[in-house]
Design brief:
By secondary structure, the protein is mostly helical. The protein is elongated, with a radius of gyration of 36 Å. Strand 1 and strand 2 form a beta hairpin. Helix 9 crosses helix 10. The longest helix is centred in the last third of the chain and has 22 residues. It has a two-stranded antiparallel sheet. The protein has three domains: about 110 residues, Four Helix Bundle (Hemerythrin (Met), subunit A) (Up-down Bundle), CATH 1.20.120.1810; about 80 residues; about 80 residues, Winged helix-like DNA-binding domain superfamily/Winged helix DNA-binding domain (Arc Repressor Mutant, subunit A, Orthogonal Bundle), CATH 1.10.10.10.
């Protein structure tokens, strides 16, 4: 209970000293708040259920967040429950408020547990908060089952895929690491940072832009060069050099009613024409032709 006491001795003392409400008293306070917006009634209703908030916060203390913050979030859930509670229904306020308190605390944990946002769907939230418990339960009941089989059991129990279970298990087993965390050399000296070892294979923005502009320019120059050829030369060159699957000399020969050797000669002559054109009109691009 030391962690609970660290929340705030005044808050804990106040919660412990708050009177328990009988069903009639609880109902009357809820009616006063709903129909008359009586702040005093809301305060009494909330104060009487702060024990529930603290107990719920203590249940989630193992997620590495301060219990005091969990209590604050649980209090927000309690007030949300009070705002939505319908006294005319035959339900105790504590029963209704429990869901809102737990939901508020869980949302806070999901937002702050990791810098990587996760668990946005109801299934993912259920997986996040139940994976450890189910894994321990399966291990206790069937210690001979391997991880893959256990993950399959968990996936079926929670209605998610096995890959979702594996991903969440990895996330829960690891913690966030700063890209600026030091990496030490063989002799214990700080040699670099963790981020230095993360290599992005994609081009930098300036290189990507330069490549895009060069590609457009080269395409334009090629079209200019092709315009100097006759139709047969263009047909052969496109089929042999500018298609993903190159046509064979024999296929083009049959199509144009010439020998495959003649096709090869026309192709070579067309390439020479293009080289000559680029050398004279765009010598800076000849090396890329």
């Amino acid at each position: 209970m030391a962690q609970i006491e660290s929340v705030s001795s005044e808050l804990v003392r106040s919660a412990r000293n708050a009177p328990f409400l009988e069903r009639e008293d609880e109902h009357q306070l809820a009616v006063l708040w709903k129909e008359q917006r009586d702040d005093a009634a809301l305060h009494k209703l909330a104060q009487a259920h702060m024990r529930l908030v603290i107990a719920m916060a203590y249940r989630f203390r193992h997620y590495g967040l301060p219990v005091s913050e969990l209590v604050q979030e649980g209090h927000i859930g309690l007030l949300e429950a009070a705002a939505r509670f319908d006294p005319s229904r035959e339900v105790r306020f504590s029963t209704y408020a429990t869901w809102w308190i737990r939901a508020s605390i869980q949302d806070f944990i999901l937002r702050n547990w990791s810098i990587v946002r996760g668990g946005t769907s109801s299934n993912q939230k259920s997986l996040f908060f139940n994976l450890r418990r189910l894994r321990a339960k399966i291990s206790q009941i069937s210690p001979e089952r391997n991880s893959r089989e256990a993950f399959g059991d968990i996936a079926r129990a929670l209605g998610v895929s096995v890959s979702d279970v594996e991903t969440m298990n990895t996330r829960l087993a690891a913690s966030d690491a700063s890209l600026n965390a030091p990496v030490y050399g063989e002799w214990g000296e700080e040699s670099s940072e963790f981020g230095d070892f993360l290599i992005d294979p994609t081009p930098t923005p300036d290189i990507a832009l330069s490549t895009s502009l060069d590609s457009e320019r080269h395409h334009k120059w090629l079209e200019e060069a092709l315009a100097t050829l006759n139709q047969r030369e263009i047909r052969i060159l496109r089929a042999r050099r500018l298609q993903e699957e190159s046509a064979t000399l024999e296929t083009l020969g049959e199509e144009l009613n010439i020998s495959k050797e003649r096709v090869r000669q026309i192709e070579n002559r067309a390439m020479e024409k293009i080289r000559d054109y680029l050398q004279h009109t765009h010598p800076e691009a000849f090396a890329h032709a």
